[in-house]
Amino acid sequence: MKEYKIAIVGATGLVGRKVIEILEEYDLPISECELFATRKSAGTDFYFRGKRCLVKELKEDSFDEGFDFAIFSAGSTASQKFAPIAAEKGCIVVDNSSAFRMDPSVPLVVPEVNSEEIKNNNGIIANPNCSTIQAVIPLKVLDDHYKIKRIIYSTYQAVSGAGQEGVNDLEKGLLGEEPKKFPYPIVNNCIPHIDSFMDNGYTKEEEKMINETRKILNNPDLKITATTVRVPVINSHSESINVEFENKFDIAELKNVLKNAEGIIVQDDIYNNVYPLAINATGHDESFVGRIRRDFSVESGINFWCVSDNIRKGAASNAVQIVQKLIENDNK
Amino acid sequence: MKEYKIAIVGATGLVGRKVIEILEEYDLPISECELFATRKSAGTDFYFRGKRCLVKELKEDSFDEGFDFAIFSAGSTASQKFAPIAAEKGCIVVDNSSAFRMDPSVPLVVPEVNSEEIKNNNGIIANPNCSTIQAVIPLKVLDDHYKIKRIIYSTYQAVSGAGQEGVNDLEKGLLGEEPKKFPYPIVNNCIPHIDSFMDNGYTKEEEKMINETRKILNNPDLKITATTVRVPVINSHSESINVEFENKFDIAELKNVLKNAEGIIVQDDIYNNVYPLAINATGHDESFVGRIRRDFSVESGINFWCVSDNIRKGAASNAVQIVQKLIENDNK
To answer: Which of A79, B65, B99, B285 fits a 20 to 30 Å CA distance from B318?
Structure first.
């Protein structure tokens, strides 16, 4: 079997470190793994399959070595500058930043939902926003079966979504330290403000959920609104999702549709207190779905609760799964 | 001025203790304040206006002493048994439990919203559920101006809503203790389960928000759905509220309508990171409203974020304010 050479950009961040871990876990045919970061973090070392890897400084000539793939998790500025350079040199970039997600020439991929889009890449494939990935997995199968008319998102997002600094704000905040990453203390608080505000009153995080859901579900006019909120939880995002359908549904059948879908674990047994929880989703790659019930305020609609590990499926695992699909396609 | 005699039932609980504190703070013409609790908690003492009050055991003859008012915060079972006894003896009961809220002969009152209902009491006035009170204050004025068509609630409820045991679960959970009140650890978790489940998939907390909102807004057919969630926050509930209107609105005018309403503090300046927060609402009696923005997924609708101190306005203060109105009416 062919073996591949991969570059991990932003290797020292919360997502980058998880990418290295998941690459080992998934046991892909990777012969070489090189790690890159900004000058500040270069020099750190990690172990990949028992072999010590030194993190190198990311430079314009970093991709001259001939990589098959690169997973970028170093923020939009780094992606904007270096992803096109890498792609130019024949490397396929899977980018975790928001830089290229809405670019019509860049596929925005969740493998369970639209893996066929992977082939349409021009060297860059975008990984969606964490809060979008977990939601579109159940929404895609629901849309296929009942045609979605409108979605209303309210999120309960973990601090790890803001990186190590977000985690520090919660952990050190509990010891009385002032926040450094968030605008207010996150301890004993819910902050309805993720990413920056736009003039229409929405945050960019809310805009991302709306636009990326439309792009992934391939429905640019889908009616969606969102409220995104940071909560004092270390890891795994929870979401309250209200969906209205064009078509009628049977609730037992709808639950079966979700149970039989790829990438979803239905935890929905209210008589035994079974529903998705952040503490249980952490460490897994599925989107956990529960509290599925008819919304009696519309003709055809439901409410459900969706939880997933935002660092794994919301970022690192989804990126590695895209690489996995690229390898599968290459070997067909 | 006439002076009144009041009984506080459930005086040792989180809400009962806050009732005593707020009665002092509001400086109502109360000449005597007697405290009652179950046998287990009887014997504790509290100070009311510098005078030591011993908590007595709640008994069938407790109301023989001739009280003008009683504030009950001892749960549904105690209210069901003792509130009618107190009312029978001429005492007006303000009941914090859910026992009588949906009884058509019992007014369900938030003074800013429907204080005129107070007069229609037969000895019992119900205090709504905490998560309902803070929401109906802005919803009432919005309904008056734009006629509400549909409401979608997603809540972020503090552990104090489950009483001292709920607070203990979070505080001691941080030290590694297992939960006693909640079905799962609340530390680093969001639990989409408050009160018990019903066969239709909703919790009783969700049902209370739906039914009580309809009763208070005096619209039994109003379309409402809800997802209620416990979050790791000590005090003050936050709510993501989506509202659809029958009528058109101008967003600047709508914000002014809220700003000019009684009991609401609008905190809505995204350019300066001003929005309601649990840590800021605690200790206040208003419903804090912000993140007010047009919902572009419907013809006429908004999203907003609503935060309030669930122990004060969500329970104790609202009850004391009802007593205050009763005193005002009596003196007219």
So the answer is: B65
CA atoms of B50 and B56, how far apart (whole Å): 18
Residue B137 tokens, joined: 């204050």
| B76-86 pLDDT tens trace | 999 999 999 99
B229 neighbourhood in chain A, CB within 8 Å? 156, 238, 240, 305
Q: State the alpha helices, DSSP H only, in B250-308.
A: 251-259, 278-281
Interchain pair B150, A297: CB under 8 A: yes
With beta carbons less than 8 A apart as the criterion, state whether B108 and B213 touch. no
Contact B240 A229 (CB under 8 A): yes
**Domain map (residue ranges) of chain B:** 4-127+315-330, 131-310
Pick the catalytic residue: B53, B130, B190, B306?
B130
What is the rounded distance in angstroms from the CA atom of residue A215 to the CA atom of residue B84? 59
Q: How many CA atoms lie within 13 A of A123 on its CB side?
A: 12
What are the E-state strand segments in A4-128?
A: 4-9, 30-37, 45-48, 51-57, 69-72, 92-95, 124-126
Q: Residue A183 is nearest to which of B154, B188, B273, comparing CB atoms?
A: B273
Residue A313 DSSP class: I
By residue count, chain A amounts to: 332
B156 has a chain A CB within 8 A of its CB: yes
Residue from B182, B198, B221, B240 whose CB has the most chain A CBs within 10 Å, to mutate: B240
Note the CATH number of domain A131-310: 3.30.360.10
Nearest CA of chain B to the CA of A108: how many Å?
23
Quick: pLDDT tens for A71-86: 999 999 999 999 999 9
CA distance B284 to B22: 11
Please, what is the end-to-end C-alpha distance for chain B in angstroms?
12
Distance CA A186, CA B232 (A): 10
**Spatial CB neighbours of B265, under 8 Å, sequence gap ≥ 6:** B284, B286, B287, B288, B289
Q: Single out the residue of B124, B118, B140, B8 nearest to residue B73, CA to CA.
A: B8
CB contact under 8 A, B152 and A297: yes
CB < 8 Å to B295, chain A = 225
Looking at domain B4-127+315-330, its CATH class is alpha beta
Which of A193, A297, A306 to mutate to test binding with chain B, by most B CBs within 10 Å of its CB?
A: A297
Q: Residue A43: what pLDDT? A: 85
The partner residues of B240 in beta bridges, in order of sequence, read B154, B305
Greatest C-alpha distance within chain B? 59
Residue A237 appears among annotated catalytic residues: yes
Residues 279-318 of A with CB under 8 A from B: 279, 290-298, 301, 303, 305
> Letter for the amino acid at A30?
I
Written as six digits, the tokens of A96 are 């975790």
Please identify among residues 169-208 of chain B the ones whose CB lies closer than 8 Å to any CB of chain A.
174, 183-185, 188-193, 197, 200-202
